[in-house]
């Protein structure tokens, strides 16, 4: 319920927010086996992707911390007031940047919009598991048929 009372505010200063989360909010990180940060965003950070990725890799490498990103694409290139953000990137460029950042943090990336899901690491993993199961099933069916023909 508390999420419903939150108001959207702030900036796209990703590094500042991440530093706060990692260096202040996770001060008891040694007491936990694993932790995750979830970034819900509509746009690209103001900092360069390689800089953010390097910091994320270093920050997450010392303990079991994963950064997961949920990118929500809204009307391309504008915020709700029609103003182009300070650091603009196309939706594909934004998605690629966050995918790189998430890889550095061993997290997962999810990209969706009003039209539905564009990309999701979890869905990709599920589809891969389903393909493996299908292939295994086909091999088993082939083996059963071969045994029947030998009898």
Main traits of this protein?
151 residues, alpha/beta, four-stranded mixed β-sheet, 4 helices, 4 strands, elongated, VWA3A protein
Walkthrough of the structure:
- The chain has helices at residues 14-25, 49-61, 91-104, 121-150, and strands spanning 35-41, 65-73, 109-113, 116-120.
- It is of the alpha/beta class and 151 residues long.
- Strand 1, helix 2 and strand 2 form a beta-alpha-beta unit.
- It has a four-stranded mixed sheet.
- The protein is elongated and about 70 Å long.
- It has four helices and four strands, in the order αβαβαββα.
- It has one domain.
The multimeric state of the shown protein is: single chain
> What does the average pLDDT come to?
81
Largest sheet: 4 strands, mixed
Figure out the total of helices: 4
Compact description:
By secondary structure, the chain is α/β, with parallel strands linked by helices. 46% of the residues lie in helices and 17% in strands.
Layout: helices, strands, pairs:
Elements: H1 14-25, E1 35-41, H2 49-61, E2 65-73, H3 91-104, E3 109-113, E4 116-120, H4 121-150
Parallel strand pairs: 1-2, 2-3
Antiparallel strand pairs: 3-4
Helix pairs in contact: 1-2, 2-3
Protein name: VWA3A protein
Organism: Polioptila caerulea (Blue-grey gnatcatcher)
């Amino acid at each position: 319920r508390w999420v419903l009372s939150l108001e959207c505010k702030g900036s796209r200063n990703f590094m500042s927010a991440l530093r706060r989360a990692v260096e202040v909010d996770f001060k008891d990180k040694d007491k936990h086996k694993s932790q995750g940060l979830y970034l819900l965003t509509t746009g690209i950070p103001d900092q360069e992707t390689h800089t953010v990725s390097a910091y994320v890799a270093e920050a997450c490498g010392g303990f079991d911390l994963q950064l997961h990103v949920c990118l929500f694409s809204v009307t391309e290139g504008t915020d709700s007031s029609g103003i182009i953000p300070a650091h603009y990137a196309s939706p594909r460029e934004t998605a690629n940047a966050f995918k790189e950042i998430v890889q550095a943090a061993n997290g997962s990336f999810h990209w969706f919009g009003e039209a539905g899901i564009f990309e999701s690491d979890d869905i990709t993993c599920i589809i891969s598991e389903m393909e493996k199961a299908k292939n295994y099933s086909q091999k088993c069916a082939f083996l059963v048929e071969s045994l029947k023909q030998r009898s």
